[in-house]
Amino acid sequence: VVEAGEVLALGADVIHAVANPLAHEASSGLHVYGGDLLNAARSMWTEPGWSEATYDAKRATGTTFKG
Question: Rounded to an integer, what distance in angstroms lies between the CA atom of residue 17 and that of residue 27?
Fold first, then answer.
């Protein structure tokens, strides 16, 4: 768990998830990436079963990024 005001550096091979346990409050996070973010090969994990799939921006965010 990363608390407010803390910073965490993750390696390129790290898998992480973000969740907000407080239904009545908003949460936010800042991700800083090096390199070509829009064209980097990425994966996402989807329910049911949390199986790995090729990252799909529209499915993950509801919008499409142009890169």
Answer: 13
pTM for this model (two decimals) = 0.47
Rounded to whole angstroms, the Cα distance separating 56 from 45 reads 10
Tokens 């921006």 -> residue: 57
DSSP calls for the chain: -PPTT------TT---------TTS---------S-TTTS--EEEETTTTEEEE--HHHHHSS----
Strand partners, 51: 46
What mean pLDDT is predicted for residues 39-66? 82
3-state secondary structure at position 2? coil
What sections of the chain are H helices per DSSP?
57-61
